[in-house]
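User: What would this chain look like folded?
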Amino acid sequence: MSSDREQRLQDLVGYLRTIQKPNKPIESVGVDDNLFASGLLDSLAIVQIVLYLEKTYGIDISAGGFDPERLATMASILDLIESARP
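Assistant: Here's the prediction, encoded as structure tokens.
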């Protein structure tokens, strides 16, 4: 994993800690695990993640069409960030 991707992962984990369900440690969820199926996040978190990506990385989710699967795992969110960066 590149140092840029690793830093973005750490930033993402920090953000997810602020919106995760109580009593479900983020450390129990792998980067390829579904954040919602694992019980870490609820459906409201999708909106919060979209807002985080728009504010932090300037990603316009609506421009490319919304696919919730692209927000299902930490790895897929990182891929989305990388694909949107110049």
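The radius of gyration is 12 Å. If you want, I can go into more detail on any region.
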